[in-house]
Design a protein that fits this description.
heterodimer, A: about 220 residues, alpha+beta, 2 domains, elongated, B: about 475 residues, alpha/beta, Rossmann fold, six-stranded parallel β-sheet, 17 helices
Chain lengths: ~220, ~475
């Protein structure tokens, strides 16, 4: 962190309200027993399903450091035995999308391209079907409201990893910005744009959500001290 | 000792089976503080203290879970409950004791009430004829063929009608568990409640006649809940996924002192100084205990270990006794195979055995959800399991455990885990986190509160 940035922290204008989101899993109508059926269902399933199998599944598996990205990639490998497709699907970073429709298109393109190159793979039966699910979401308050950077750090350390996911990963769907709630607040309310940038660059696919929390805390501490 | 004497002779433990020298040995064994375990081949004499069920401990309070799930999760439950505070839930099932549903309701109902969402639990009544019919329905829904007669339909409807007249439905949410009380939904016209059907069984391949008879009732509910995506049917009502769960504070899952684990294992003749491979399940062909013995024998060529097969069901199930005999024959005279036919109340002993294990196997050929897998994962044990039923929901291959499809695959993974302790530790840690996130009773309390809130909000949006 530069000396200039260290001089900049100011009393935030607005407090940061730590919220969290809880999800109830709904079983959808679509299911796929082949990659062709997966492609078809990717086009017709509700946005809630795309959210569930990409954004939300990261939260469900927040404790895994490597090897889990999204349900489509996991199924392509474990049930269709297509490692090339699985790697391509797993490389999609949900944080590059501020709307579900864009993410759906990307997933669809990857499967489509793969099946054009490997048409026989389209009809080969998977060992287990892919069941499309969706999430009903309820946003809840937490006991933490921060009106200072010290309070922000305290809240950050105390809230659940679900809250971290809510503010750090799901936020871009709410904000429709390539950012997150923490970075937004640190930049706009605390005058810490570089801190905000550093937080946005944390790799969520090679970290558990707990280590994401620790990295955010470390970056903010460096700016404060 | 002759080879005949060495053959597995698992001891009967249930009251009424205590005659003969084995019972005498058991009584003597508890009179000494640390008796050496009597060893006869792979059978083990069990302590007499296991002959009668212990008194059940009082149910825990929400605060008791704080050290396990964290303050933030306890807070989330309280925030969720606030929106439905004072609104009431009725749970209805067909038995108050025995079975997973009653066990779960025994914990769920007090926790919901503690969150100021009063929950009432009613049990339907019926004659033997009713329960014979519903048992047959249960098996038919699981895929057995069944000739659905008019008489069976009438018995089912008659007892549901009797219970409908007896029960009141003044609550805001009524939850009907399993098919037995399914037709109580006929009362929904007279109630203002949301009606939910919680199906604990696998409906993926039901007998068509039984399903067509029951489906019109299911379609009258506001929502249906299943234990796995693959257990659900295409229905015109919203379907939710509630995984079965374990209670981390129950006798079977609570933390134990190392000395307590050691003592229980000593009493059961298990050597804690050597690697222990364990499968906990009743003696049932679908759990493939003979396959586990074969896998152990293949692995044993390369690595030293003991195999513990801890289960029950051989006393009250004729097929269980046959399977137990098959397991004994497969085990032969290997003293490192320990077969324990335990009574159903030995939860603490199962807990200790799982905790003492180096790794746990659940090599099922067919499975419901597989709560023994959940129990092993919760204890941080590297777990190898058949990729069937609800097991793949719990075991993500190489991340939270290992999935296998054959005896040979199981044997290889036993060898691998016993010789790669760091990998074993890592998947054990992830497995425990997976359970903490998805398969604890507190997560299910949260699911019920979420569902209650969502259904209440949906109802308030409906035109009057």
């Amino acid at each position: 962190m530069s000396a200039a940035e260290k001089a900049l922290p100011r009393q935030p204008n607005k407090p940061f309200y730590f919220n969290t989101s809880e999800h109830l899993l709904r079983i959808g109508r679509e299911r796929a027993t082949t990659l062709s059926e997966l492609l078809q269902a990717l086009q017709t399933c509700p946005e809630d399903s795309i959210f569930q199998h990409t954004f939300r599944t990261l939260q469900e598996h927040h404790f895994i450091r490597q090897g889990f990205s999204n349900d489509f990639a996991h199924w392509s490998l474990s049930c269709c035995h297509e490692p090339v497709l699985a790697e391509k699907l797993a490389s999609v970073d949900v944080r590059e999308f501020t709307a579900i429709e864009g993410l759906r298109q990307r997933m669809k393109e990857i499967v489509e391209e793969f099946l054009q190159k490997h048409p026989r793979s389209g009809s080969r039966p998977a060992s287990e079907p892919f069941f499309f699910c969706a999430s009903d979401i309820v946003v809840l308050p937490t006991a933490f409201v921060a009106d200072s950077l010290a309070g922000f750090l305290e809240g950050l350390r105390q809230v659940s990893v679900h809250s971290i996911h809510h503010h750090f990963i799901e936020a871009r769907l709410r904000l429709h910005l390539m950012s997150n709630d923490f970075s937004q607040w640190l930049e706009e309310e605390a005058g810490l744009p570089r801190t905000a940038d550093a937080i946005e660059r944390i790799d969520i696919y090679t970290n558990t959500m707990e280590s994401v929390r620790q990295q955010i805390a470390r970056i903010v501490e460096q700016a404060v001290n | 000792m002759t080879s005949q004497e060495q053959r597995a002779t698992t001891t009967s433990l249930l009251p009424g089976h205590q005659n003969g020298p084995e019972a005498t040995e058991a009584v003597i064994s508890i009179a000494q503080p640390h008796p050496p375990p009597p060893v006869h081949g792979n059978s083990r004499q069990l302590p007499a203290s296991l002959l009668t069920p212990p008194a059940p401990p009082p149910p825990p309070h929400l605060e008791d879970y704080r050290n396990i799930i964290g303050q933030a999760q306890v807070d989330a439950l309280r925030f969720l409950a606030r929106e439905v505070k004072g609104k009431t839930i009725k749970m209805v099932n067909s038995t108050s004791v025995g079975g997973g549903v009653a066990e779960m309701l025994n914990r769920l109902v007090p926790l919901l009430s503690e969150l100021e969402v009063p929950a009432h639990w009613d049990v339907i009544t019926g004659g033997n004829d009713f329960f014979e019919v519903t048992k047959a329905f249960h098996n038919a829904l699981h895929g057995s063929t069944y000739e659905l007669t008019k008489a069976a339909q009438e018995i089912f409807l008659m007892y549901n009608e009797q219970n409908r007249e007896r029960l009141q439905f003044g609550e805001e949410m009524v939850v009907i568990h399993d098919p037995q009380p399914l037709a109580l939904v006929r009362s929904r016209q007279k109630s203002h409640a949301n009606w939910v059907w919680r199906c604990h069984i696998d409906l993926s391949n039901p007998d068509a006649h039984v399903w067509e008879f029951l489906r019109p009732f299911v379609e009258q509910y506001d929502a249906a809940i299943f234990s796995s995506q693959s257990f659900a049917r295409q229905l015109p009502v919203p379907q939710y996924l509630f995984y079965p769960c374990i209670d981390p504070l129950s006798e079977k899952n609570k933390e134990l002192e190392e000395s307590q684990v050691q003592k229980i294992c000593n009493d059961l003749g298990i050597d804690c100084s050597r690697p222990i491979v364990t499968q906990v399940s009743r003696f049932d062909r679908l759990k493939d205990p003979v396959g586990v013995v074969q896998a152990y024998k293949l692995a044993k060529k390369y690595v030293d270990c003991q195999l513990v097969l801890a289960g029950g069901g051989a006393k009250d199930d004729p097929e269980g006794a046959v399977v137990l005999q098959e397991v004994r024959e497969a085990a032969g005279n290997d003293p490192d195979i320990i077969i324990l036919d335990l009574p159903p109340w030995c939860a603490l002993e199962i807990n200790a055995i799982q905790r003492a294990s180096t790794l746990v196997v659940q090599k099922s050929i067919k499975e419901g959800f597989g709560l023994t897998v959940t129990e092993a994962l919760w204890k941080g044990k590297p777990t190898i399991a058949g990729a069937v039923g609800g097991i793949p929901n719990q075991i993500i291959h190489r991340l939270t455990g290992l999935l296998v499809h054959s005896v040979e695959g199981c044997a290889f993974q036993i060898r691998y885990l016993l010789t790669h302790p760091e990998f074993a530790r890592r998947i054990g840690v992830s497995g425990r986190e997976h359970v903490k996130e998805n398969f604890l009773i507190t997560t299910n309390v949260k699911r019920w509160l979420l569902l209650f809130r969502i259904l209440q909000e949906t109802k308030s949006l409906r035109p009057a």
